Amino acid sequence: MWDWTKAVVTAFLLFVLIRSLLFEAFKIPTGSMERTLMVGDFLLVNKAVYGAEIPLTHTRLPSLSVPERGDVVVFFPPHDPHRNYVKRLVGMPGDTLEMRNKVLWVNGKRQPEPYIRSIDPLSDPGDSRMMWQLAHLIRGKGDGFEYRPTRDNWGPIVVPPGRFFALGDNRDNSEDSRYWGFLDAAAIRGRPMFVYYSFDRGAANPFAWLTSVRWARIGEAIR
């Protein structure tokens, strides 16, 4: 019994260590990252790449690399710090960002983004949550009476030091930095590596997890 208990405790501690410091599973619940990620995708996230946080502390291990523009990352958003989000980093500290008619401009250059998806070409709704951008707006581009940001037209704004700007690839259906603001570097938890399992959650079948597997997506690297 003692040998069995030691084996179980050791296995549990190894699981906690690996999950906390190295890798963690993550599932996609919404379509905000389509085409890149689909509802029903299960991802393996590398938590060591940006420096994992040691459990029960606020100490982070040394990072293997730094977040870069274009990285898909898992993080805790500032408005909901206990819920995992996954988006793509499009703005680095010091960048000037602007969107004109759905097209993203960074530091005055139009960005090629072959991975984005647009499902609503006819409307461009505004949202009062976007008014946070006013504090970071480049002077001369508007003021509290003139600036009216919308989903597809906003900025130019400047990303502060130590912060990032994240957008979903499905730009017409994504709750991202346009609405809740900049992402703190310390909130980034890791970078998804690949899809280890995927099934069509929209299938009208109670056993879709077994009968509607997207075999072609299993093992697909996330870029």
How would you characterize the overall build of this protein?
With 223 residues, the chain is α+β, with helices and mostly antiparallel strands. The chain is built from 3 helices and 11 strands. Strands 1-2-11-3-4-9-10 form a 7-stranded antiparallel β-sheet. It has one domain (2-217): Ribbon (Umud Fragment, subunit A). The protein has helices at residues 2-21, 177-180, 208-211; strands spanning 23-27, 41-46, 72-75, 85-91, 96-100, 103-106, 109-110, 154-158, 163-167, 183-184, 188-198. Helix content is 13%, strand content 25%. The N and C termini lie far apart (47 Å). The model has no long low-confidence stretch (mean pLDDT 88).
The secondary-structure class comes to alpha+beta
**CATH level-4 homologous superfamily:** Umud Fragment, subunit A
Strand content: 25-35%
Q: Helix count, per DSSP?
A: 3
Low-confidence stretches: none
What is the typical, i.e. mean, pLDDT? 88
- Could you state the order of secondary-structure elements as H and E? HEEEEEEEEEHEEH
What sort of overall outline do the alpha carbons produce when their principal axes are compared? globular
Count the E strands. Answer: 11
**Cross-sheet strand order for the largest sheet:** 1-2-11-3-4-9-10
CATH class: Mainly Beta
Largest sheet: number of strands, sense, barrel closure: 7 strands, antiparallel
Share of helix, binned: 10-25%
CATH architect. name: Ribbon
